[in-house]
Amino acid sequence: MATAEINIGQVDDVQELQRACQATVPERYVRDGDDRPDGAKVCDHAQIPVIDVGELPHDGELNKLRLACEEWGFFQVVNHGIAEEVLDEMEKVTREFFMLPLEEKEKYPMAPGGIQGYGHAFVFSEDQKLDWSNMLALGVDPAFIRQPKLWPTNPASFKETLDKYSGEIRPAVRMNFYPPCPRPELVLGLSAHSDGSAVTVLQQDMSCAGLQVVKDGAWVPVHPIPHALVINLGDTLEAISIPFIP
């Protein structure tokens, strides 16, 4: 039986909650005790591997990459060849979009059951705990997955910047914004998960280390490196790389 999402209009916009300076968090965003961030085991002294793409395929860097894939499934890459101004401009227009008034952002709504546009994806029930974040997701390549009506025209340079960025990075782009929360110990910006794709390329905001990955049962913060990209090996790649034993 197919499962449909609820109407996005029934979900609070967390940025508007934050702008309203509400001191409380709606129950839909409050995590149960075991799922709260203040109860998680965090390992601050560890750091995910950093791979210098310019040093590949030298044996030393190649071995670091192999170990990063086998032992972490996450790593950061530097000297990757993508122009710094492309990364900077994408971060700039993304931030400008999320700073727009709600009525402007709602011109690009994510339809119920959809995965493109502005809003909350994968909302299936009124009882579901929601992430403390806003999202804009857009398909880019191949051309037939594009939905031009969902591409913001404000900021004016958004489309040109996204075209250039996606040509360097990947064919689908998702932008997440995590506004401050009055009770951050009760919420999650993004629920714990693994990516179902083969590879995810992530560009982090340089202002804070919000991303964490699990290693040996503990959460390890991923500290941003200027103009580095985080590589996440997803479930698909893990499945196809498992040795077959007849």
TrEMBL record:
<comment type="similarity">
    <text>Belongs to the iron/ascorbate-dependent oxidoreductase family.</text>
</comment>
<dbReference type="Pfam" id="PF14226">
    <property type="entry name" value="DIOX_N"/>
</dbReference>
<dbReference type="InterPro" id="IPR027443">
    <property type="entry name" value="IPNS-like_sf"/>
</dbReference>
<keyword id="KW-0479">Metal-binding</keyword>
<protein>
    <recommendedName>
        <fullName>Fe2OG dioxygenase domain-containing protein</fullName>
    </recommendedName>
</protein>
<dbReference type="InterPro" id="IPR044861">
    <property type="entry name" value="IPNS-like_FE2OG_OXY"/>
</dbReference>
<dbReference type="Pfam" id="PF03171">
    <property type="entry name" value="2OG-FeII_Oxy"/>
</dbReference>
<dbReference type="InterPro" id="IPR050295">
    <property type="entry name" value="Plant_2OG-oxidoreductases"/>
</dbReference>
<dbReference type="GO" id="GO:0046872">
    <property type="term" value="F:metal ion binding"/>
</dbReference>
<dbReference type="GO" id="GO:0016491">
    <property type="term" value="F:oxidoreductase activity"/>
</dbReference>
<dbReference type="InterPro" id="IPR026992">
    <property type="entry name" value="DIOX_N"/>
</dbReference>
<keyword id="KW-0408">Iron</keyword>
<dbReference type="InterPro" id="IPR005123">
    <property type="entry name" value="Oxoglu/Fe-dep_dioxygenase_dom"/>
</dbReference>
<feature type="domain" description="Fe2OG dioxygenase">
    <location>
        <begin position="169"/>
        <end position="246"/>
    </location>
</feature>
<keyword id="KW-0560">Oxidoreductase</keyword>
